[in-house]
Structures are given as structure tokens and as C-alpha cells.
Amino acid sequence: MTDPARTPRRVSGPATGRNGTRSPGDRSRRSACRAGGDRGAPRRRTGGTGGRLSLRETLRDDRGGTAIEFVLLTPIMFFMIFGAVQFAMYSFAQDVAKAAAQAGAREARREAEGSPDTWQASARAKANDYVAQLAGPGLLQQHDVQLSQPSPDVVRVTVVGYAPAILPGTEMRVTASSEGPVERFVPDGG
What we know:
Layout: H1 26-35, H2 55-60, H3 65-111, H4 119-135, E1 141-151, E2 154-163, E3 172-181
Antiparallel strand pairs: 1-2, 2-3
Helix pairs in contact: 3-4
């Protein structure tokens, strides 16, 4: 004779197997559903706390952790991305200022001996042309070309400007100088 406790019950419905029997794991699924939902969620206590979770269970609960991580890390990621773009724009503005200062210094070295009154205007025009050609509008803002002659044989061109600010509150000043000896024609034997 068969033991009725060991004989699988025949039931009908969506949770039944091929022969109308329940699967072995079905009992645990039913108990999880009765307990109030997902098996991975902490069970609510029904003791003296009125159904609230204990502190330990609350700290182990990681529901919503991804959203909190996203909220905390998104501003940091944006700051890093914009910081990289800001650094690239500063580096490019520095290169433009350096190229403009070198072009202005070449012009000043060539013109300073032959035309001592007009070399500053031609060197300033050359440096401004380089800034306009390389930087375009807005990449080297509020630029200024400063010319000086530290000694009678040396000329210096300095380009000062600002890189555009992407990050609020950043003002990045760009300065580049180039100097060199004045070119002179010295005849043979003299």
C-alpha cells in the first residue's frame, strides 16, 4: 500500500507539470509569494516591531542602490569630461599664442634694424593675423600683443589672452613670449 503523504497530489492549473503534479521547488515559490513578494527581499518581521525592518536588515537591503550611485557619480563624471575639454581648449589656446608670438618676433627681428619706427606695427599685425588664422573667433579671447625691446639688439613679442571657460568660475589666462636678436647686415671685412 502506498503512503498518502508521499504520493504527489494531482492538481490542475498553470503551476502543474506534465502529470498534473507540482514541481519540487514549487513549495518554496508558494511560500515566498505568501511572505509578500520576491525571495531576495528581506522578510518583514511580524514580532513586536510592528512589521518594520530591523536596522541590520535595512543596511543589508540594496534596493535603490544603483539609482543612488548614479545620482552621486554623474556630477563627478560630467566634471571630469568638461575638465578634459577645458584642458584641451587651454592647451590649444596656449599653442596659438606661442605661434603668434613667434611669428611676430620673426617679423620684429627682420624689421627692427631697417625701419625702427614701424617695426612694432608690422610685428603686431603679423601676430594678430596668426591669432585670427589659427584660433578663429572666440578661441583666444581678449588677446593683446605687447612689444618691447629689452636692449638695442633684442626684440620681444608677448601675446596675452584668455582661453574660453567651459567650467563656471574658471578664467584661464594664456601668455606666450618670444624674443630674439635683431637681424643686421654686416658687410665683409667690417
